[in-house]
């Protein structure tokens, strides 16, 4: 027998299945989906590989033999192997890289071939004889060996006990236990224990009641479940319209049909609230997967899913690979979010993976959002997707009243602080009424730039082409790209002048709020306040339980969260994400503003929002204030049509990075010439560049790329893959790394 394997550590240029002979001693262990170790290359370097398929003969003479098997059981099935080939073609990665992406990090193997994360187990004891025989022996030994008798009596009452509990309860020692095992009276064995993430225990609750509008949408989506074909539907609803309730009913229907479901959320911060709700509705059927879990918890949740013990998976981007048995439904909440896009190889989008998996399983895919991705909304309009809409909030409460505050006028009136006078007064009113407020500023730290007030010297990272951010609480300057950290000298190193602190982040906003409201509780939620010791769940729980009047945060607080007592939202800098090089800047800004405004007025009390901006006349900000997505969509889609931008064409980035900037640019110019010769005029491919990334240098590597405007057909991807392989083999480009990114965002 021969095995076709996908080898690790291969470049795209030489990635293909390699055949190996299966020794007789390994015939039973080598099956598709398992990992093996094989000799590779002229030096027979021991290399890890995934088994893809088995055959009785090979077209290659003198095949080398597999050395050993790494897994007792296959980790991946036929569905995952097919998905890997799809990812290889779509995302220009190797088959091994695709397969490795599907597994939690805890399944990685060390140099000795052992898993880095070991299985947890519990040592258990049970009787090896009948209860009558054990009782008879205990009666005989009660006087001379009371500990033995006590152990046997306890095991007669409890069929199975852990060794630690048994010894603790009886006071016996390990030698006593070993003696009973030698006599053949008891059996000691190891049993696997699955580590579970800590969740709040919640009583089982009935599913939420749907109002008339929700019920109509649910009935429409219900037709896509179990219909025998894969269908994609877009569910668009204003913030607070109750999309989560519809998700719950769809999941319940899928489970009732004997099928599994996956619910994807864009941020880890949303997972605890989602998990608490769905655990109350579905109990132990729920498994959670995200990077906030320990490696052991992720591995064991993955096992529960693979074994069918958990049929509903809730998680972030990587949860789209969860090995759900008999998949029937995938739901993507806030489907427009960029966090669903992987920034490391393979550079996949969870929406594409979800569509492929649903096609494999004839399952339904539901994309939910208050501000859908323009491509998804256009596909719904053209009939490629089903389209369902929720026009009103679940409790029929009006959307928050939104006020635009012109910060230029605030400066003219002498107010140079982060808080405008109207927002400050609104916060004070909520504090007096015992209500809560959320302030949004999508930049952490204290000041974006530290500059000398005399000579203008600024602190820039030595390894990245960005300014270092001042973090007042740590008294250090930190690069948010490579993590470099330095203390701030008392004076300018160039001229000895004093420093000015320009720009503002959440830490500075927190300090200003404490000065403005000295006796008021304030909670900050950003990447600096969330860590291994303090989780998102703990911070949000404090905000709810302690009724903290003010919460200031970054994008972590902008979407998906539900706080009944929040009646005010303030956006401190609405222009921050609007003016940048990305053609999606307007879409991102509109979505972010709409989402954060929707965090207030979700309970019985009405909500109000203040958007602080230096450009109140900007149409995107005005439409976001009105929460008028349809008008924004009609305006933006026409702009995309004129630009011939997605969804009317595809954009592909052919990127290169290296330590020598000039070498990177020359390598891309050579790659551009190569691509121009490989595409014909009939392909309609336009190649622009090389152009630098918005942040051109990160960790001492310069980054440039070509932009291709085209239709990403199979032929286009084939040519790009061939060009990528050619660049990887070119000796003149040895110190330059290349990769291809579908639809790059920056």
Q: Would you mind describing this structure in some detail?
A:
The protein is of the alpha/beta class and 746 residues long. The protein contains 21 helices and 30 strands. The two termini are 49 Å apart. Helix 1 (78-91) crosses helix 2, helix 1 (78-91) crosses helix 11 (350-361) and helix 20 crosses helix 21. The longest helix has 18 residues, at 661-678. Helices cover 32% and strands 23% of the residues.
Features:
alpha/beta, 746 residues, seven-stranded parallel beta sheet, 32% helix, six-stranded parallel beta sheet
Largest sheet: 7 strands, parallel
Number of contiguous helices? 21
- In angstroms, what separates the terminal alpha carbons? 49 Å
Shape: globular
Evaluate the radius of gyration: 30 Å
- Overall SS class: alpha/beta
Mean pLDDT: 89
Report the helical percentage: 25-40%
Strand content: 15-25%
Low-confidence stretches are none
Give the neighbour order of strands across the main sheet: 11-12-10-13-14-9-15
- In total, the number of strands is 30
Q: How is the secondary structure organized here?
A:
Layout: E1 2-7, E2 18-21, E3 35-40, E4 45-55, E5 68-69, H1 78-91, H2 95-101, E6 121-127, H3 131-141, H4 146-157, E7 161-162, H5 163-170, H6 174-182, E8 186-192, H7 212-222, E9 231-237, H8 243-256, E10 260-264, H9 271-282, E11 286-289, H10 295-306, E12 312-315, E13 327-333, H11 350-361, E14 364-369, H12 374-381, E15 386-390, E16 401-406, H13 407-412, H14 421-433, E17 436-440, E18 449-452, E19 469-471, E20 476-478, E21 485-487, E22 499-502, H15 506-516, E23 522-525, H16 536-545, E24 550-553, E25 566-571, H17 585-597, E26 608-613, H18 619-626, H19 629-643, E27 650-658, H20 661-678, E28 686-698, E29 701-710, H21 714-729, E30 737-742
Parallel strand pairs: 9-14, 9-15, 10-12, 10-13, 11-12, 13-14, 16-26, 17-24, 17-25, 23-24, 25-26
Antiparallel strand pairs: 1-2, 1-4, 3-4, 3-5, 6-7, 6-8, 18-22, 19-20, 20-21, 27-29, 27-30, 28-29
Helix pairs in contact: 1-2, 1-11, 3-4, 7-8, 17-18, 20-21
């Amino acid at each position: 027998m021969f095995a076709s394997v996908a080898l690790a550590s291969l470049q795209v240029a030489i990635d293909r299945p390699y055949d190996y002979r299966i020794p007789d001693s390994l015939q039973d262990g080598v099956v598709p989906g398992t990992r093996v170790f094989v000799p590779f290359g002229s030096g027979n370097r021991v290399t890890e590989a995934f088994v893809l398929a088995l055959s009785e003969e090979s077209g290659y003479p003198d095949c080398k033999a597999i050395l050993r098997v790494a897994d007792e059981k296959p980790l991946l099935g036929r569905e995952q192997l097919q998905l890997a080939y799809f990812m290889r073609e779509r995302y220009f990665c190797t088959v091994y890289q695709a397969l490795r992406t599907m597994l939690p990090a805890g399944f990685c193997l060390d140099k000795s071939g052992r898993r880095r994360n070991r299985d947890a187990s519990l040592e258990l004891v049970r009787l090896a004889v009948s209860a009558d025989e054990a009782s008879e022996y205990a009666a005989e030994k009660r006087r001379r060996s009371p500990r033995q008798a006590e152990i046997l009596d306890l095991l007669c009452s409890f069929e199975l006990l852990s060794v630690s509990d048994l010894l603790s309860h009886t006071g016996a020692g390990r030698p006593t236990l070993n003696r009973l095992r030698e006599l053949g009276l008891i059996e000691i064995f190891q049993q696997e224990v699955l580590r579970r993430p800590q969740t709040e225990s919640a009583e089982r609750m009935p599913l939420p009641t749907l109002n008339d509008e929700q019920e109509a949408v649910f009935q429409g989506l219900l037709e896509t479940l179990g219909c025998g074909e894969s269908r994609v539907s877009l569910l668009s609803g204003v913030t607070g319209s109750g999309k989560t309730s519809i998700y719950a009913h769809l999941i319940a229907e899928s489970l009732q049909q004997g099928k599994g479901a996956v619910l994807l959320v864009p941020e880890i911060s949303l997972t605890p609230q989602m998990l608490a709700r769905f655990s109350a509705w579905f109990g132990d059927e729920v498994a959670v997967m995200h990077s906030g879990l320990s490696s052991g918890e992720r591995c064991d949740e993955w096992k529960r899913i693979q074994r069918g013990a958990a049929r509903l998976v809730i998680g972030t981007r990587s949860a789209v690979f969860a090995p759900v048995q008999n998949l029937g439904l995938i739901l993507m909440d806030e489907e427009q979010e960029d966090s669903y896009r992987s920034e490391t190889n393979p550079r996949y989008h969870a929406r594409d993976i979800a569509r492929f998996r649903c096609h494999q399983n004839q399952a339904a895919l539901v994309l939910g959002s208050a501000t859908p991705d323009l491509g998804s909304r256009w596909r719904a309009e053209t009939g490629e997707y089903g389209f369902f809409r929720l026009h009103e909030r679940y409790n029929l409460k009006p959307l928050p009243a939104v006020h635009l505050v012109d910060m230029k006028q605030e400066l003219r009136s002498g107010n140079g602080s982060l808080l405008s006078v109207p927002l400050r007064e609104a916060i004070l009113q909520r504090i007096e009424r015992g209500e809560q407020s959320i302030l949004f500023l999508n930049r952490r730290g204290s000041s974006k730039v530290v500059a000398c007030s005399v000579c203008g010297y600024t602190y820039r990272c030595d390894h990245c082409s960005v300014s270092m951010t001042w973090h007042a609480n740590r008294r250090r300057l930190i690069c948010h790209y490579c993590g470099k950290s330095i203390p701030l000298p008392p004076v300018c190193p160039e001229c000895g002048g004093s420093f000015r602190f320009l720009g503002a982040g959440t830490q500075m906003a927190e300090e200003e709020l404490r000065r403005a409201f000295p006796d008021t509780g304030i909670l900050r939620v950003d990447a600096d306040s969330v860590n291994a010791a303090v989780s998102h769940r703990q911070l949000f729980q404090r905000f709810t339980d302690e009724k903290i009047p003010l919460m200031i945060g970054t994008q972590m607080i902008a979407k998906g969260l539900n706080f009944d007592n929040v009646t005010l939202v303030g956006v401190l800098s609405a222009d921050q994400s609007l003016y940048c090089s990305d053609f999606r800047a307007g879409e991102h800004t509109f979505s972010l503003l709409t989402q954060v405004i929707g965090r207030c007025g979700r309970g019985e009390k009405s909500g109000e929002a203040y958007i602080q901006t230096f450009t109140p006349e900007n149409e995107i900000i005005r439409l976001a204030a009105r929460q008028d997505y349809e008008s924004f969509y009609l305006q933006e889609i026409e702009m995309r049509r004129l630009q011939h931008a997605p969804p009317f064409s595809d954009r592909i980035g052919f990127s290169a990075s290296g330590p020598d900037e000039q070498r990177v640019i020359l390598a891309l110019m050579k790659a551009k010439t190569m691509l121009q010769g490989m595409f014909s005029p009939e392909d309609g491919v336009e190649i622009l560049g090389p152009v630098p990334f918005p942040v051109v240098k990160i960790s001492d590597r310069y980054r440039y790329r070509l932009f291709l405007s085209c239709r990403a057909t199979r032929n286009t991807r084939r040519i790009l893959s061939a060009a990528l392989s050619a660049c990887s083999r070119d000796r003149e480009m040895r110190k330059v790394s290349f990769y291809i990114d579908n639809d790059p965002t920056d």
